[in-house]
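hey so i finaly got around to running the thing on Thymidylate kinase from Pseudomonas putida. pasting the sequence first so u can double check i didnt mess up the copy paste, my clipboard has been acting weird all day
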Amino acid sequence: MNRPLFIALDGPKGTGKTTLLEAVTQALRADNRKVIRLCEKKSDPFRGETMALVNHLARNPCQELELKVCARLADSRAWISRNVLPRQPANSIILIDRWYPSDAAFRRAVPFAEILQMNRERNVQVPDLHVGVVTSPDTSWARAAARTRGLGSTVIRRLDEQVACTEAFERAVADHGWVLCRNEGTVEDATQQVVAEIQGVLASNNL
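ok and heres what it spat out for the 3d tokens, dont ask me to read them lol
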């Protein structure tokens, strides 16, 4: 492999994405692949200021504020693209927990096409593989309810909002040709699907 392979896992809250990331990491490492795990929010030095704006948006929803949130997130991804991703080993597989596809789930007033354009204009790095992790809204809602921290979302507070979040994300997955991973069965099944997709990208790029 002569360059890193960049893979983003995105989706609504409560779909088991973090558990799946860990399982995929272990499976790839068992195959002697060097895997780097990154998290968008932990790599973002401006996250505190952005979340303050997100909290303000949650109390005062409007398109103007949401647009500012989208722009701040795109700026942060551009910073990560310049300052974090290039530092990763050339022979690695980078798995990132959330990237711009997640905006398709969480934003309501700004069309995703506009969000995507923001990211492109800022030269945000495009993943070699987008994986959208979904479940039925009832499943993700029930999983979240069983966790100590609950859904852990600033913008989603009701089941009907989770339904809208999931439907919007699935539309974006279909519109943009991302890989859809339905994580309602066993973690092993979902892991096999994602690892097979990664191996396909590796083979097609001779990596």
